[in-house]
Amino acid sequence: MAAELLVSGWRSIPVLRAFRNEHERIRRNGSGGCDDPFCVQLLQTSRAIGRKVEDVESIVDRWMFQRPGKWLHLFRRRGLLTAISRFRALGGRSALVSDYPATAKLRALRAASLFDVVVACGEPDGPRRLKPHADGLLLAAQKLGIEPAACLVLGDREDADGEAARRAGMGFQNIHSWPRALRW
Questions:
Q1: How many structural domains does the chain have?
Q2: Per-residue pLDDT tens for 94-105?
Q3: With 0-12 CB in 10 A as exposed, 13-18 as middle and 19+ as buried, what is 86?
Q4: Of 30, 51, 72, which residue constitutes the final position of a domain?
Q5: What would the 3-class secondary structure string for 30-95 be?
Q6: Which domain, by its residues, includes 6?
Q7: Do 57 and 93 sit in the same domain of this protein?
Q8: Are 164 and 153 in contact (CB under 8 A)?
Q9: Model confidence over 128-145: pLDDT tens digits?
């Protein structure tokens, strides 16, 4: 994927970098009460680099969602997905909470069936604030019908996922602390 971006999408790299920078800025400062932080991120990126929001959205969609889709299943974290599958086989319920649109990526990963609920920014009924705010986690627990204290959040960022879990009153496990076989 990186090679594909360098060869045929190198002009998109500054846009993608600016988009990620805006994401972190929104994470720190909020989205001004907007209902969709993903839309705010697109708009702020557009303003920051002086490009039409439609152009930014097209580049982001192409290089962060569409083109990676054909490669994602090859690089899925099999150990993690197997652990989720086993948990569900024992009667567990699961949700995916993401600061980015996630449904198409789950389909590309061939993992959509592993989640009872998807709560993602940029998708219908997504959270109004990015992690470390607990909005998305609390919404997922509500949709699952599970008390927050009975939830365990698996994440890869202590500052975002871990802090959101603490604010929601949920447990947290950083997947980077797991044995390599479970992570991959």
A1: 2
A2: 999 999 999 999
A3: exposed
A4: 72
A5: CCCCCCCHHHHHHHHHHHHHCCCHHHHHHHHHHHHHHHHHHHHHHHCCHHHHHHHHHHHHCCCCCE
A6: 2-72
A7: no
A8: yes
A9: 999 999 999 999 999 999
